[in-house]
Amino acid sequence: MKKYPLLLRPVSKEIIWGGDRLRREYNKTAPFEKIAESWELTVREKEMCVIADGEYAGVPLGDYIEAARRSVLGYCGARYDRFPLLIKFIDAADRLSIQVHPDDAYGLAHEGELGKTEMWYIMAAEEGAKLVYGLKEGCTVEGFAKAVEEGRTEEELNFIDVHPGEVYFIPSGQVHAIGAGILIAEIQQNSNITYRVYDYNRPGADGKPRELHTAKAIDVIKLRTKEEIDAIRFSTPCRFRESDTCEILASCEYFTVVRVKTAPGVTALYDSCDRSFASLLVLDAGDDAEIECGGEVHPIHKGESYFIPAGTGEICVSGTAECILSEVN
Prior knowledge:
Layout: E1 6-9, E2 11-13, H1 21-26, E3 37-41, E4 50-51, H2 61-68, H3 70-77, E5 85-92, E6 98-100, H4 104-111, E7 118-125, E8 130-135, H5 141-149, E9 157-161, E10 167-170, E11 176-178, E12 182-189, E13 195-198, H6 214-220, H7 226-233, E14 246-251, E15 255-262, E16 268-272, E17 278-285, E18 290-293, E19 296-299, E20 305-308, E21 313-318, E22 321-328
Antiparallel strand pairs: 1-4, 1-20, 2-3, 3-5, 5-12, 6-13, 7-10, 7-12, 8-9, 8-11, 14-15, 15-22, 16-21, 17-20, 17-22, 18-19, 18-21
């Protein structure tokens, strides 16, 4: 199979809390008005990216991978039973539900699917925007369960102000929620298990309250300190080195994520080795932004997503660009 940076056509999702920034600012399209999520790298039966350019234009990404397997996934990517990553843009015009994700053991036992550890990169946030990140200091799981039962859920949540450029690592078991007015790039395990514990008593698209999964949510909550979360976030040796163009955002059991930032005269070189495929998510790009691979130059644009097969070779990012690069471990 020919290897080159594959531009992907994403999968858009309509959810009640979505906004219109992805359409207005990132050139996303959908048959509905408000795009809550744009799944930029997804290989799932009902949500599948399609290759948008080059020799394989029009081919579902899953078919391309199936034809080559280890050759394009790399030896780290090929060790998983299913494609291991799911990467999204999320536009929260309104608050998301209070939720938690199980770990792998619980997810497999109860849902037949792996659990979810994820990471958020804050692309934009309105003044005063907040996230829910864990429970209030001193609140126990039992105390939280009682608060939920008594209708006092919000009293025991840890609300924090957020700002562009911040990173929030969310291991399985961490109570969390995106607040209104926040735009996020999310890197996560390829799992769609979400246990909602509270949804502000609002109706869903059908006018009925959205389903809650309170008992399971309480089952999987884990309380951790910031130091314990950071230890998980950086638990795996990273092959990248910090530099003026590269910032390591996470290197955990499931993925490594780095932020790549270039400017005129400042380039970043990425070696696509046999270890893993990569995702290149373009957060911002000037008219001069491009990637060069195998002697071919590809202009890149804000909002684009590329699948870089393992073993593609050296890739140079140049011009004015800010990207998120993700691999699996």
